[in-house]
Each structure stands twice: as structure tokens, then as C-alpha cells.
Design a protein that fits this description.
Elements (H helix, E strand, L loop, with lengths): L1 H10 L2 E8 L7 E7 L4 H11 L11 E9 L4 H8 L5 H5 L2 E3 L17 E8 L3 E2 L4 E2 L3 H8 L2 H14 L28 H14 L5
Parallel strand pairs: 1-5
Antiparallel strand pairs: 1-2, 3-4, 3-5, 6-7
Length: 207
């Protein structure tokens, strides 16, 4: 008599996730039924098995975002999501799921069946600068030629190489004006050249 109870308890941890593929969110919709106590890495593998024709590069090449999108009246959102220059975060407010050894139920606890829960994207055509993917290598190359990519690349370069203090000169040298507290006088390269010429004109024995 106890066995059916244990079986029912085991099945109660199963959840169903409504998923869309980032590159084709209108037609690329599918469902995954999985144990909420499984790990995110198990979810990636289940998605790869479910969509073998779409995700050919292994489960580690799948990026996931948890989202909260109504199943009905969402075409405008999905069309915007499909745009190669749009990110999941900017369109849906979704949260990137990264930790493979985190339990699924910590991200999806009693998911609403009338919602889209998960955006899925393969990473074989991924732009690390913009942290976004493209549907094909051709689309990725086109994205890398766009103003959006150039702006992100410029921002990344500035973050890695902040400008030096505008009040300092190259190599840390400073000019001192006449009348400074230490009575130092600044010399330009022309001043030094003129001084050397004067020394040469004096001739030997006159210094």
C-alpha cells in the first residue's frame, strides 16, 4: 500500500518547462519535462536530446535564460527577441542561468503552465564582446561589422585601458614654470639646442 505513495511523491518533483529558441522563438517552441531536483547541467543535456537537429555542439554549448513571458499575445516580444542585435536580457528582462551544478527547482519552482519559462541558445556563433549569439556564422560576421559591436568593443577597450591622468605628462614628467616655489625654470628642446650651439661657438679654452 505504501509503494504508490512513494511513487506519487517521486513524480511530484517533475516539472514541465516551456522553452523557445532565441534564433527562432515563434516556430522554435518546445517543452521539456524534467525532475526539479536534477541539475542545470542535466537540463542542458535534456534540451540537446530533445532538439538534436538544433543543438549539434553538445550540452556545454547551450546558454539558458529564465524568463516570464505570457504564452498568449507575445508575438511582438518574440519578434524582437529574434532580432540578431537584441539580447535576451534587454527584451525580456530574463536572467542568465550559468551554474551547472545548481538544482533546477531553484530557478523554476512550480512553473506557471501559461508562461514561457526558458530561452535557449546555442553558442557556436557567439560574440564574446557583446555576450550574444547569432543564428549563423554569416550573421555573426555581419554583427561584428555593425556599429553596435564597435561601440561595445570600444567600451571594453576603455574599461581595460583607462586613460592616464590628464594633468600628468608622458612618462610622468612635469613642467615647472618660472616663479614656482622651488625657483625652477622649464627648458624646451629649442632652449637646449641654443645652449649647445652657444657652447660650440665659444671654442676650446673659453669655458
Amino acid at each position: 500500500m505504501g509503494l504508490p505513495v512513494y511513487k506519487e511523491m517521486a513524480e511530484s518533483t517533475k516539472i514541465t518547462l516551456n522553452c523557445v529558441v532565441k534564433e527562432n522563438p515563434i516556430e522554435g517552441q518546445f517543452r521539456i519535462k524534467i525532475d526539479g531536483n536534477d541539475f542545470i547541467c542535466d537540463l542542458r543535456e535534456a534540451i540537446r536530446e530533445n532538439q538534436r537537429g538544433t543543438f549539434e555542439y553538445g550540452s556545454l554549448g547551450i546558454k539558458l535564460w529564465s524568463v516570464d513571458i505570457d504564452l498568449g499575445n507575445n508575438r511582438a516580444v518574440l519578434e524582437q527577441l529574434q532580432n540578431a542585435d537584441s539580447t535576451v536580457e534587454s527584451v525580456t528582462g530574463g536572467i542568465r542561468i550559468m551554474e551547472g551544478f545548481r538544482k533546477i527547482r531553484l530557478h523554476f519552482n512550480n512553473p506557471d503552465p501559461n508562461k514561457i519559462h526558458l530561452v535557449v541558445q546555442a553558442v557556436q556563433n557567439w560574440c564574446d564582446v557583446c555576450d550574444k549569439g547569432s543564428a549563423s556564422k554569416k550573421t555573426l560576421n555581419k554583427h561584428k561589422e555593425s556599429n553596435t559591436h564597435d561601440k561595445m568593443l570600444d567600451r571594453e577597450r576603455k574599461a581595460k585601458n583607462p586613460p592616464s591622468d590628464p594633468g600628468s605628462d608622458v612618462e610622468g614628467f612635469h613642467d615647472y614654470d618660472e616663479g614656482n616655489g622651488d625657483n625652477s625654470i622649464s627648458l624646451t628642446s629649442n632652449d637646449i639646442t641654443a645652449f649647445n650651439d652657444e657652447i660650440e661657438n665659444l671654442g676650446p679654452g673659453r669655458l
